[in-house]
């Protein structure tokens, strides 16, 4: 019963985290099914729940699609509890990019996935409607509203606001924002981020007591919902 309960908890963590960050999951039961799934839709991430990490037949499929130019980050999830680290070594040697053992911790699992997507450039593919305490961002229409009132944003203002909302609760440095939102390597002393944040605040916070974007002195910015606020 304990093993069954533990597996169910891990499954719940996986499903809730993927839903939270806007990833739609497709399950493959065997290597051939995996090959077919990848041929239909290019995934942004592959989660491999494995017992025998090093001998998994799916590694050959991953190597083949990568050789064709596909960027496919792989996170291995294993039930191995050994302290020898053999599972992790096998995963990385075979082509894995991340490795976690069960039971999964929700926060760590989420941020490892986000970090992996960021490092491989796949995070920008996320297209999820985000909501933070009355603020709503719909990337498909590039639409922004707060408490039901539409806010007119320039394309770059929208990109910056969406980036902060997607990383809600995480401190985003100015350098990271420049890299992820502008896509260029700016000089460290540029104030373009601060200028855009000021413009966004003027539009977003007018008439609202709760401020959503907070300055982290000397570092950058973070979006936080106030206590009792809602996020999705």
Quick summary:
The protein is an alpha+beta fold. It is built from eight helices and ten strands.
Notes on the structure:
With 232 residues, the chain is α+β, with helices and mostly antiparallel strands. Helix content is 41%, strand content 16%. It has 8 helices and 10 strands. Strands 4-5-6-7 form a 4-stranded antiparallel beta sheet, covered by helices on one side. It has a 3-stranded parallel beta sheet with strand order 1-2-3, with helices on both faces. β6 and β7 form a beta hairpin. The longest helix is centred in the first third of the chain and has 19 residues. The protein is elongated and about 60 Å long. It starts with a helix and ends in a 9-residue tail after the last strand. The mean pLDDT is 84.
Provide the fold topology:
Elements: H1 2-20, H2 31-40, E1 46-50, H3 58-67, E2 74-78, H4 86-94, E3 98-101, H5 106-119, E4 130-132, E5 135-138, E6 143-146, E7 149-150, H6 155-166, E8 172-173, H7 174-182, H8 192-204, E9 213-216, E10 220-223
Parallel strand pairs: 1-2, 2-3
Antiparallel strand pairs: 4-5, 5-6, 6-7, 8-10, 9-10
List the uncertain runs. Answer: none
Oligomer: single chain
- For the CA atoms, what is the radius of gyration? 20 Å
Strand content: 15-25%
Biggest sheet descriptor: 4 strands, antiparallel
What is the ordering of alpha helices and beta strands? HHEHEHEHEEEEHEHHEE
What is the approximate shape?
Answer: elongated
Task: Kindly state the percentage of residues in helix.
Answer: 40-55%
């Amino acid at each position: 019963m304990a093993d069954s309960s533990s597996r169910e908890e891990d499954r719940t963590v996986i499903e809730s985290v993927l839903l939270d960050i806007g990833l739609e999951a497709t399950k493959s039961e065997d290597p051939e099914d995996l090959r077919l799934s990848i041929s239909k839709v290019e995934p942004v991430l592959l989660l491999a729940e494995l017992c025998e990490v090093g001998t998994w037949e799916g590694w050959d499929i991953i190597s083949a699609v990568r050789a064709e130019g596909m960027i496919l980050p792989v996170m291995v999830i294993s039930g191995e509890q050994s302290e020898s680290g053999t599972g992790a070594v096998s995963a990385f040697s075979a082509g894995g990019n991340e490795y976690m053992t069960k039971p999964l911790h929700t926060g760590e699992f989420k941020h490892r996935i986000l970090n992996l997507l960021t490092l491989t450039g796949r995070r920008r593919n996320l297209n999820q409607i985000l909501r933070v305490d009355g603020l709503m961002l719909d990337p498909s229409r590039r639409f922004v509203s707060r408490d039901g009132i539409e806010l007119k944003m320039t394309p770059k203002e929208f990109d910056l606001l969406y980036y902060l909302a997607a990383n809600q609760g995480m401190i985003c440095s100015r350098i990271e924002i420049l890299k992820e939102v502008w896509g260029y390597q700016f000089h460290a002393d540029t104030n373009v981020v601060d200028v855009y944040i000021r413009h966004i605040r003027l539009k977003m916070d007018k008439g609202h007591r709760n401020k959503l974007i907070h300055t982290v002195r000397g570092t950058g910015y973070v979006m936080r919902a106030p206590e009792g606020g809602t996020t999705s």
